[in-house]
Design brief:
50 residues, two-stranded antiparallel ribbon
Length: 50
């Protein structure tokens, strides 16, 4: 799940607590889905959270 207002992406998986995986996204256009690689790509000010 992503939030352009809060500038982040949260991973939500069944049976697990939500986990913030990206923060400080400047715009909704900072992310895209790569269907060939089947992954979300995002350009953030800070690197991916661990």
């Amino acid at each position: 799940m992503s939030s352009a207002r809060q500038g982040g992406i949260t991973e939500i998986a069944p049976g697990k607590a939500p986990r913030l995986i990206v923060e400080n996204l400047p715009l909704a256009a900072s992310m895209c889905y790569d269907s060939g690689a089947k992954q979300l790509q995002a350009t953030a000010i800070q690197p991916w959270c661990q």
